[in-house]
Known about the structure:
Layout: H1 2-18, H2 20-26, H3 29-35, E1 58-60, E2 85-90, H4 108-120, E3 129-134, H5 149-173, E4 179-184, H6 186-199, H7 203-207, E5 209-215, E6 242-243, E7 247-248, H8 255-261, E8 280-281, E9 286-287, E10 290-291, E11 299-302, E12 309-312, E13 318-320, E14 326-327, H9 353-366
Parallel strand pairs: 2-3, 2-4, 4-5, 5-6, 7-14
Antiparallel strand pairs: 1-3, 8-9, 10-13, 11-12, 13-14
Amino acid sequence: MARKFLYIIAGLIVLVLAGAFAYRFFGNDLIRMSLVPGEEFRAQPDVARNAYDDKAMWLARPDLPGNPALWTPEGYSPRARPGGAAVFFIHPTSYVSRDHWNAPIDDAETNDRAALFLRGQASAFNEAGEIWAPRYRQATFGAFLTSAADAERALNLAYGDVATAFDSFLTQIGPRRPIILAGHSQGALHLTHLLRDRIASDPKLLRRVVAAYVVGWPISRTTDLPRLGLPDCATADQARCILSWQTFAEPADPSLIVDTYDKTTGFDGQPRRGTPMVCTNPLIGTPGATAPATANLGTLYPAADLATAAITAGKVPARCDERGFLLIGEGPAVGPYVLPGNNYHVYDYSLFWANVRADANRRLAAFKP
Length: 369
């Protein structure tokens, strides 16, 4: 019963988080009063440089008992042989309180919810390699509902933890291991900064990247992508490239995201207004493409008790539209958390779970040091 309750809570959290990007500018006063922290942001010391040498600072890593990222649906299993890539996965927001701008690193409920996200998202990569997913002082999702300076401070604090965890990850995996980078929503936002700040300027590190899955957060082809150090993936077996998508059923109304996106500034300092977004079709691993439902190797469908999920192939098609959104036709009945505008953000990974898994394996096989 406790597990079922946590799954329900996790779904509700993701629902609110999924609308965060839009509500940052368009949320109503009641939502802000309910979810935006009432206190001022409190500066905190940077996490110690060696903090992530401690196994307790990770939600998933190869030597962690009960690793949630090792979950698989029936018919699949995690990698059994040594080797493969080291996967650095940044989970989405799981902190829902308005008590603080950032989650306490040891908050049990927050970490339990984050572990559930790893089961449904990071697990797609557990055949390609060993998954490392750090705990971090994530910004509460109320930080996405306001343009106040405190929200930016909270996101910067969260990113500082992620960057420190990444440095420790690099030390612990050694200097030659191939790397897969992945994240979702807030995690994908932090991943874009990690690419820009730490990876794009380091040629040796850049050569180790098999692929970066920046899912559920927009990347402007014009104002962001040139600063990330990697191109978007042009072919299905290309290594050292970026994949990104944001999923909508049809008829799609992404106006809230578009209106917000058009008010922001890209990594090159220029407006994002009117610029196309990176859209990789996860069914076939190429940009701006169309694929039928028969190309879908498997979508996760939660069980009635929400304690696990089954996988079913051939149900969900996908195509990229001209602006850069991924459209899936009518949309499957995978759960109750579809957002206004037919936004399937919550299901960005699970709709294409088996294809993401195959994609990571294929790019790893094509990778040459």
